[in-house]
Amino acid sequence: xxxxxxxxxxxxxxxxxxxxxxxxxxxxxxxxxxxxxxxxxxxxxxxxxxxxxxxxxxxxxxxxxxxxxxxxxxxxxxxxxxxxxxxxxxxxxxxxxxxxxxxxxxxxxxxxxxxxxxxxxxxxxxxxxx
Amino acid sequence: xxxxxxxxxxxxxxxxxxxxxxxxxxxxxxxxxxxxxxxxxxxxxxxxxxxxxxxxxxxxxxxxxxxxxxxxxxxxxxxxxxxxxxxxxxxxxxxxxxxxxxxxxxxxxxxxxxxxxxxxxxxxxxxxxxxxxxxxxxxxxxxxxxxxxxxxxxxxxxxxxxxxxxxxxxxxxxxxxxxxxxxxxxxxxxxxxxxxxxxxxxxxxxxxxxxxxxxxxxxxxxxxxxxxxxxxxxxxxxxxxxxxxxxxxxxxxxxxxxxxxxxxxxxxxxxxxxxxxxxxxxxxxxxxxxxxxxxxxxxx
Lengths: 130, 300
Hints:
The complex is a heterodimer of chains A (130) and B (300).
Chain A: H1 2-15, E1 29-37, E2 43-52, E3 65-69, E4 82-83, E5 92-98, E6 103-111, E7 114-122, E8 127-128
Antiparallel strand pairs in A: 1-2, 2-5, 3-4, 3-6, 6-7, 7-8
Chain B: H1 3-27, H2 35-52, H3 57-79, H4 84-103, H5 129-133, H6 136-160, H7 162-172, H8 174-179, H9 184-210, H10 220-233, H11 241-254, H12 262-276, H13 284-299
Helix pairs in contact in B: 1-6, 1-9, 1-10, 1-11, 2-3, 2-4, 2-9, 3-9, 6-9, 10-11
């Protein structure tokens, strides 16, 4: 058994060679997420705006997505990934987010290999930044 | 398979792995509210070694296991004289200590290449394993499931050995085990160390799978859920953890109509089980009865 595990580890080591050495090829980005409650329970409408992390200028990014998870109980309340589409101004607007319960959620924005995490407190009447 | 299903399967596998680490604790007769601490130590170790210092993920996993084992052994040596509630509280204190400590940890590794480090409560981003390895979500899910399968096989093989029988003996009655000459303290320290290393390993997998970790991930809620999965499933067989994880992560999460009531239903299930099946659904007599029935069928 131990030999089998060692062989698997060695194979993984050889096959993934440069795995840890990727290059950060994209601009440093920041994301602003603003959400508002909708008429349905636990459903919110969100706007996602991507900016350059240093200059603050709006960036147009194609093919981003957001994922929501509760930081206090990771993996057990995850919402399905939502693919984002940009409008004419390069902004990603009016995304429908369906939650499983009220409380503090982590919104994870991904575009390529860039990941930005934001925390929002979703309550029945409002969404605030904790 | 769509991304949501893959994520659910990956999450269920990760939580199962953490629940298996608690199963080892239960085998030796202890409960833990602090395994989220080992999980966090594993996640941060793997993240720092791979994304901070550009080592291969195999080294990241190795570092996580070593860090988990060292912290587990240290905790075990300090707390093994404690029993029951006192031991439970000491594990809870350890878990909270790790979470708070990670929230204070800022580190920016220097040197060539893209680097990232922990940034206190802001968390640790830039974990690029899934992207750089080209595994994608499907590959990463398969990787996590394969790791879980290896862990399950390892624990089942361990239970079949004489060592496994000794561990169960200590768990069922440590005074009797001591009376028949078993080294109870050594066995407990060894099993707690192994359990911590396994929790850290699952934490490393979690870091690779989610690509973003933060101290809030390792709150007591995670430890309580993992313990609940184990208690629902039962202590008769390691596979029993799938019952608890399946009930919470697959069944209750998949039924969106239950969203608001999910935690109430889950809590209610635990209360009912503790009342009517204190050793879980698959307790030792049930497992023995199932095995007996299966052997009987094979003879026919």
